[in-house]
Amino acid sequence: MRIAIIDESASRASIIEEGLSQLPDCQISVITGRHGLLARIAEIDPEIVLMDLGNPSRDVLEEYFAVSRALSRPIAMFVDQSDDDAIASSIDAGVSSYVVDGLSANRIRPIMEMAVRRFNAFSRLQSDLDAANSKLTERANVDKAKRILMNTKGITEPEAYAELRRKAMSSSKRIADIAEALITAHELMKD
């Protein structure tokens, strides 16, 4: 497992490394500077990112939240103090675990495991939501295509659907693809 530790303090980073020392087959990379952070993370290509920010200013926190938004990885963030806005921003940025005043070696592994599980659960939910939205869009397009056929050919809804289905079968395409093509053609013809 590749793990990136982001911490400007080498001594604090060593606490995280100590907490990870029991993990087998673990590649740990420590990043201590903020310059070129995304490029350095991309180079490492970690499976999880652990950020220790100590007591960051609002600007530093926002900078790290921007990094979090750009990554599609489980992220555990450690801070010494926090407020409601910072917690809300961390959630919006995709931080999987936001730990306040909890940096100790014996807590690192369970926090990291929780971050990975929370990230995976959120990813599954996002994937399910995307699939549901895609199906709704396809259904709306099929309904719109049926209305176009009904209005232009003067046929009933079952006849319009049967025509879409026949065309899909004869061209080895999905009904949703045929519906989308029909809608596009209809819009082009209107102009």
UniProtKB/TrEMBL annotation:
GO biological process terms held by the UniProt record: phosphorelay signal transduction system
Modified residues (4-aspartylphosphate): 52
Domain ANTAR: 122-183
Molecular functions per Gene Ontology: RNA binding
Domain Response regulatory stretches: 2-116
Keywords, in A-Z order: Phosphoprotein
UniProt cross-references to InterPro entries, sorted A to Z: ANTAR, CheY-like_superfamily, Sig_transdc_resp-reg_antiterm, Sig_transdc_resp-reg_receiver, WH-like_DNA-bd_sf
Pfam families, alphabetized: ANTAR (PF03861)
Entry protein name: Two-component system response regulator
